[in-house]
Specification:
With about 170 residues, this protein is mainly beta. It is about 15% helix and about 45% strand.
């Protein structure tokens, strides 16, 4: 025969109280405290996207993901295939800002198929827009990847780079 669930629910708090009374003067967390507790490492914002974009010299493929945790740490990566010059590159996202359905990213190249064209350490900044999901939503948008004057840390300035519709792909920003 199994015990009713209510007996388990009532016995667990009593067990914690008994343990807490012996050795600690710190009050035990309440059920509400436990329910509201959030790890500082949990993502506060995140974004991901991937697909193809028509560019003047062909079609490029972009992919990226990024997250910002409660302590301000940014994690993420990006991949770009520049079809016009047949170069591939990837890197780490080092700057990430979300405002509504828009996100700005900054990153540093950590791998490249053509170091003379896209050298290691080059910094890029770009932005993306999440315009909803499903067939009735307007297309998501992404800017080109800008470098030179725009260093990776400058994504926090939220530059309003012009954007293009994904030829095929999706962006999600939370």
């Amino acid at each position: 025969m199994t015990r009713p669930r209510t007996a388990l629910v009532f016995s667990l708090p009593l067990a914690f109280l008994a343990l807490g009374c012996e050795s600690s003067t710190t009050p035990l967390p309440t059920d509400l405290d436990l329910a509201l507790a959030k790890s500082p490492n949990a993502p506060v914002n995140w974004a991901s996207g991937g697909g193809t974009v028509d560019v003047p010299d062909g079609r490029s493929t972009y992919a990226f993901h990024a997250s910002l945790d409660g302590t301000g740490n940014v994690n993420g990566g990006f991949e770009i295939h520049f079809s016009s010059v047949d170069a591939n590159t990837h890197g780490d996202v080092t700057c990430f800002v979300v405002e509504g359905n828009r996100a700005w990213f900054g990153g540093v190249v950590t791998g490249t198929s053509d170091p003379t064209l896209v050298p290691l350490g080059r910094e890029f900044v770009w932005r993306a827009e999440d315009n909803g999901q499903g067939a009735n939503a307007p297309p998501d948008r992404v800017s080109s990847y800008f470098s030179g004057v725009w260093t990776a840390g400058r994504c926090a300035e939220k530059p309003l780079f012009p954007t293009r519709e994904w030829t095929n792909g999706n962006v999600q920003i939370r």
